[in-house]
Each structure stands twice: as C-alpha cells, then as structure tokens.
Amino acid sequence: MRLCLFWKKVSKAGTSLPQNSASALRKMEADFIRIATDLINRKQWQDAKLLLTHALSSKSPDWAPIQESGGEEVVHCWNREEFVAYCEQAARTESGKIIWVSRSYSQACCLLAYVAVEQGNLQEAFEVLCNGLEMEPDHPQLWCELGYIFQSVKRHEDALGCYRRAEDARTWATHTQKAQALRGQGINLIDLGRLEEAEQALHRSLEFAPENSGALHELGFIQHLRQNTGVPPKPS
After folding, report:
1. Sheet containing 98-100: which strands, arranged edge to edge?
2. How far apart are CA 4 and CA 212, in angstroms?
C-alpha cells in the first residue's frame, strides 16, 4: 500500500515559477541544496519553495541516490556524516571508488516538506515526503519527518511506526539518524501511555547521542508522570 493512502487527499493550488525568475533559478540548480538551506535558515519560505520546486521539476527520470558508472559509485548523500557512514559499510564489501555528489533530490523533498510545515500545510508536507520516499525509501530522515507529521495530528501509532522504520531502514544509518529515530519513538510511546517502552527507547537514543537535551528532558518528564500517578517503574 502506498504511504499516501494513509492520508486523506485534499485539493491545493500548484506552485508556479515566475517567468522573470526562471533563468536565475536555472543558474542555481547546481547548488540548490545549499542555497535552499540558506533561504530556510533566513525564513525566506517562499523563495526556498520556488527554488526546490523548480529543482525537482528538472530531475532526470532515471535519477537515483546511488548510481554506478564505470566501476565507480556516485552517491548523493545529504551530509558528510552520511557519506562517511556509507564509505565505512562499502569498505566492508570491498566496493570501488566512491564519489560524493551533494545534489540530492530526496533531500530536496525533505526541505520542501519542512517549508510546508512552517507554512502550516501538513497535507503538502506529507505528499512531498511520500515523493521523497519513492526516490529513496531507506532514508531515515524522511521516515522521521513523516513520523513528525503523524505526531503533529496525534496519530501516535502511525508516528511510532514511521520512527521504527527510520531506525531499521538501513544498516549504515548514522548515529544522528539512529538517535533521532529512537527519540521519536520515545516521545510517541509517552503519548500512548507506554512509559516503560518509552524509557527504553530514550535510553537507547542516548547511546548514539549522549547528553542530548531532548532525550534527557523526555526522561525527566517520564519521572514526573510516575510521581504524579504513583506508578513505579518495572524492575529490570
């Protein structure tokens, strides 16, 4: 079943590219991820949306996050940590030369979803993330962001499923990705009233990101809930 079937479809207006901006945006295509990230950091949501939408419209039909060419692997990793993780697992399989290209269209979907959330359009964010997962179905960040969408509308079982998928999506996930997936599980398990499981997930997240303030805060919240309800933790 396609993920998009989980969400009720609603009609929306498309995004058009102003004619007088088209040539300028074409010149930015080679570095659209960096430029879009900078626009997002400056909260220039509409400019970021136009750039990312234009970049995705120009994507080659045969684009893939990992491509082989002449004995070399071209990988479209989202950041250096991800590239290092990929190289480490590739070394175990004795892969050949690996080239990192930062122009990832699945990452563009993730950024576009972030913009949609900031603009208050969860439906659009959901659909964009579905597109990203069609391009790169094993990317933990896409699953985490999808989990956040479900969490935002209090569909905590669906959110938990997404965060669990994020944890197990690939064998070479980075520590940052593992920690985020486990924190997401912990938060939604709290909302589901499953405090023991939540505590376990949050402690596991700290193995990948020690001293993370978000995980520590949630663990403190669990203790607060137990004190108020008088329910002690189960003995390990």
Report:
1. 66-69, 72-75, 98-100
2. 32
How far is the C-alpha of 217 from the C-alpha of 219, rounded, in Å?
5
- DSSP letters, the chain, are --GGGGS-----PPP---HHHHHHHHHHGGGHHHHHHHHHHTT-HHHHHHHHHHHHHT--TT--SEEEETTEEEE--SSHHHHHHHHHHHHHTT---EEE----HHHHHHHHHHHHHHTT-HHHHHHHHHHHHHH-TT-HHHHHHHHHHHHHTT-HHHHHHHHHHHHHS-TT--HHHHHHHHHHHHHHHHHTT-HHHHHHHHHHHHHHSTT-HHHHHHHHHHHHHHHHHT-PPPP-
User: Residue ranges of the domains in the chain?
Assistant: 162-236
* Maximum separation of any 2 CA atoms in the chain, in Å: 66
Could you tell me the two tokens for 15? 């995004």
Give 121: exposed, middle or buried? Use CB within 10 Å, 0-12, 13-18, 19+. middle
Q: What is the C-alpha separation between 216 and 112, in angstroms, rounded?
A: 30
Where does residue 193 fall: left (phi above 0), alpha (psi -120 to 50 degrees), or beta otherwise?
A: left
Measured CA to CA in angstroms, residue 171 lies from 1, 33, 177, 221 at distances of 24, 25, 11, 31
Q: For 44-87, what is each residue's pLDDT tens digit? A: 999 999 999 999 999 999 999 999 877 889 999 999 999 999 99
pLDDT digits (tens, 9 = 90+) for 112-141: 999 999 999 999 999 999 999 999 999 999
Please state, as a whole number, how many other Cβ atoms lie within 10 Å of the Cβ of residue 62: 6
